[in-house]
Design brief:
single chain; 597 residues; alpha+beta; Phosphorylase Kinase, domain 1; Transferase(Phosphotransferase), domain 1; Serine Threonine Protein Phosphatase 5, Tetratricopeptide repeat; 3 domains; seven-stranded antiparallel beta sheet
Length: 597
C-alpha cells in the first residue's frame, strides 16, 4: 500500500504468471468517512470498502496495544483453517506513513450488533449468534489467545438474514506464552468484565491472575444484553454482591422478555462467579441450550454442568458441513448463510448489461475498460449473476481477464444455482476458450473444487460438456480433486463411466482417481463399467488393476461378478474370476437374481 495523501492510498498487487511477467492490478482507495477516533472507512473505485485503524507512532501506549493486535491478527490469519477464518473480521494487512501505523481490516456494512439490532433479539437469533461466537472462542483459546473484551461493539454483523457475525478488535487480546496460562492486567469494558479481573474473588485465592474464563463471562453478559438490552451487572456494587454470594442471579429481566428456562440456565452457567466453575468453550456446549423451554423460574437442575445431554436433536454441530453431504440445522427454521445482492449503481449495471447482451468468443477491451475506469463493479450480482459470471459463460477469455484485473471476485457464486465462474466456463463447449478462461481464473485463486447446487464440480461439468480429454487433464494438472461427490453421490470417475465417457475415465485413472468410492446405490466404478455394455473390457481391466474390492456388493447385495453374468458379459466374468472374484458368491447371487426375475 502506497500513501498518496492523507486520505488517499494506492494498492498494487503483483501476481506470478509465466505467461504475463510482471502482471499487476492497481486499486485506488479513498477515505470516505470516520467510524471512530482514528478509525476510517476507505472505498475503492470498484466499490469495495475497508476499515483502516490508525495509530500515532508518537504514542507508545497505543503503539504497544496495536502491536499486540497485529500479533494476534497474524496468528489468526496464519494458524487457523479457512472455514474458521470466517469467524473473525478479516485482516488485509498493514502499512505505514511518516506519522502513523495503519491496520487494514474487513468492513462490515451492518456495523456492530448493538447498532444493527437496537431491540431485544429472539432466543433463536441469540442462540445462533452464541454458536458462532463460541466457535470463535474455541479457535482463539486453542491458540492460547484470550480476547478479553467480548462485548456488543466487538461483534460485527456481516449478514442479517440469517444473522452472521464475526469477532473483531483484538487490541487488548493476550496470547499466553508457552508454559504461561495466566493473565494479569486489569482491562476490559465495564458491564462485561469478569469479577476476577476486578479482584472480586475469594480473598484466599486472590493472586491477581485470571484465565480465558473471562471470555466465557463476557459471552454470558453479551447474551444477557442481546435478549434484554441491559447488562446483568451495570453497577460495581451489584457485581460485587453477586460475586460474593450475597445476591441471586438476576434473571428477572430475562423472564420478563420471555426467555426460556434452558436459555436462562445456560447464561447463568456462563456467569458463574468462580472462574473454575464456568464451562470451557467447546463445540458441544450449545447442546445445553434448547429453544422453546418454558419461561417459568430457572430450574437449577437444568444447569449445563449437570445436564444429562439427552436433547441431541437440539445439538448444533460447529464443524463446517461437507458440501458433499449437506445436513440440516434443526435448531431453527433459519436458512443457511447466503450473500445478499447489493444495489447496482449506473456504471455497474451498464457493465453487466454489455456483458449480458454480448455473446462472443473474442471481445475488445475498448468496450469494458472505459466503464470499469468509471468505477463499475464487476462483482455485484444482478438477477442472480455478475459480469464475471456472464463473461465466463458466453464471453471471451479477454473479457474474463480484464474483469479479473479490475478485481472481479472469483469467490462469488450465482443464485440460486451456486455456480462459480469456472463452472460457467464449461458452458460454451469450446476447449480453447475453456483452457484460456481456466488459466485466468486459476491465477486469481478460483476454487477448483467448488460445488454447485447439484453438487457438481468443474471436473464433473467438463466431463459432461467438453468433448476433449484435454480439459480433464488441464483441471487435474491444476489440482482439481477426483474425490468430490456430485449428483447421486458420483465422483468424477463414477460420473464419466455413467455417461460412457470411456476416454475421460481413462484420464481420471491416469490422474489417480480412486476406484473404491461408491455412489448412493453402493455402485462402484467396477459395477458401473460392467453395467454399461459400451464400456470395453480394457477399461474394466484398468479398474481391476487399480485394486478395488472385487467382491464388494452394492446396496442390493449384487457383486460385480453377478452383474457380469446377469448382463451376459462372459469375457468380463472370466476377467473377474481370474482376478479373484468369489465364484460361489457370484453364482449364488446370480441364481438368486434369476429366481427373483
Amino acid at each position: 500500500m502506497i500513501v498518496l495523501s492523507e486520505d488517499r492510498n494506492r494498492e498494487d498487487n503483483y501476481r506470478s504468471d509465466p505467461h504475463h511477467p510482471g502482471r499487476r492490478t492497481r486499486t485506488i482507495w479513498n477515505r470516505t468517512r470516520m467510524l471512530a477516533n482514528n478509525v476510517y472507512v476507505y472505498e475503492s473505485s470498484l466499490g469495495e470498502s475497508r476499515v483502516v485503524k490508525r495509530v500515532s507512532r508518537k504514542d507508545s501506549r497505543l503503539t504497544d496495544s496495536y502491536a499486540s493486535e497485529l500479533d494476534v491478527l497474524r496468528q489468526v490469519s496464519n494458524d487457523v483453517e479457512l472455514q474458521e477464518k470466517q469467524l473473525f473480521v478479516h485482516f488485509h494487512g498493514w502499512f505505514s506513513s511518516s506519522e502513523h501505523v495503519c491496520l487494514m481490516m474487513e468492513y462490515c456494512r451492518f456495523g456492530d450488533i448493538s447498532k444493527c439490532y437496537p431491540d431485544p433479539l429472539s432466543e433463536v437469533e441469540a442462540r445462533r449468534i452464541c454458536e458462532k461466537l463460541l466457535d470463535g472462542l474455541v479457535v482463539l483459546h486453542g491458540l492460547g489467545i484470550t480476547h478479553r473484551d467480548i462485548k456488543p461493539q466487538n461483534v460485527l454483523v456481516v449478514q442479517k438474514n440469517p444473522i452472521r457475525v464475526k469477532i473483531a478488535d483484538f487490541g487488548i487480546s493476550k496470547r499466553a506464552l508457552e508454559g504461561q496460562t495466566e493473565l494479569r492486567t486489569q482491562i476490559g469494558t465495564q458491564g462485561y468484565m469478569a469479577p476476577e479481573i476486578l479482584g472480586l474473588v475469594d480473598e484466599a485465592k486472590l493472586d491477581s491472575t485470571y484465565s480465558s474464563a473471562v471470555d466465557i463471562w463476557s459471552l454470558g453478559c453479551l447474551l444477557y444484553y442481546l435478549l434484554t438490552k441491559e447488562t446483568p451487572f451495570s453497577e460495581y456494587e451489584a457485581l460485587r454482591d453477586y460475586a460474593k454470594g450475597y445476591t441471586e442471579f438476576p434473571d428477572g429481566p430475562l423472564i420478563e422478555k420471555g426467555v426460556g428456562s434452558s436459555a436462562r440456565a445456560f447464561i447463568k452457567a456462563l456467569l458463574a462467579p468462580a472462574p473454575e466453575s464456568r464451562p470451557e468453550a467447546s463445540a458441544d456446549l450449545m447442546a445445553d441450550w434448547v429453544v422453546g423451554h418454558d419461561t417459568g423460574p430457572t430450574d437449577t437442575a437444568l444447569m449445563p454442568a449437570e445436564s444429562p445431554r439427552e436433547t441431541q436433536d437440539a445439538k448444533v454441530d460447529s464443524v463446517p458441513r461437507s458440501p458433499v453431504e449437506p445436513q440440516e440445522d434443526t435448531t431453527s427454521p433459519i436458512a443457511s448463510d447466503v450473500e445478499e445482492e447489493d444495489e447496482m449503481d449506473f456504471y455497474s449495471y451498464e457493465l453487466w448489461h454489455i456483458v449480458k447482451s454480448t455473446k462472443t468468443k473474442t471481445g475488445s477491451a475498448e468496450r469494458l475498460i472505459p466503464i470499469l475506469d468509471q468505477g463499475a463493479n464487476p462483482s455485484i450480482l444482478h438477477d442472480g449473476s455478475n459480469a464475471l459470471h456472464l463473461a465466463a459463460e458466453h464471453g471471451s477469455p479477454e473479457w474474463v481477464e480484464i474483469l479479473l484485473t479490475y478485481a472481479a471476485s472469483v469467490k462469488i457464486t450465482t443464485r440460486p444455482r451456486s455456480e462459480t465462474a469456472l463452472h460457467l466456463a464449461t458452458c460454451q463447449g469450446d476447449l480453447d476458450l475453456f483452457l484460456r478462461k481456466l488459466r485466468s481464473l486459476y491465477d486469481y485463486g478460483v476454487n477448483l473444487d467448488a460445488q454447485n447446487l447439484d453438487g457438481d464440480t468443474a471436473l464433473h461439468l467438463a466431463i459432461a460438456r467438453l468433448g476433449s480429454v484435454d480439459s480433464i487433464r488441464a483441471l487435474l494438472d491444476a489440482g482439481a480433486s477426483t474425490e468430490r461427490k456430485g449428483r447421486e453421490g458420483r465422483t468424477p470417475l463414477l460420473y464419466a463411466i455413467h455417461l460412457r465417457r470411456e476416454d475421460k475415465a481413462g484420464v481420471l485413472l491416469d490422474g489417480g482417481a480412486a476406484v473404491d468410492y461408491a455412489d448412493e446405490n453402493g455402485r462402484t466404478p467396477l459395477h458401473l463399467a460392467i453395467a454399461k455394455k459400451r464400456i470395453r473390457p480394457a477399461l474394466i481391466r484398468r479398474i481391476i488393476d487399480a485394486g478395488p474390492d472385487i467382491n464388494q456388493p452394492d446396496r442390493d447385495g449384487r457383486t460385480p461378478l453377478f452383474d457380469a453374468v446377469k448382463l451376459d458379459r462372459p469375457r468380463v466374468a472370466k476377467l473377474l474370476l481370474e482376478h479373484g472374484a468369489d465364484r460361489e458368491l457370484g453364482i449364488r447371487r446370480v441364481r438368486y437374481g434369476w429366481d427373483r426375475s
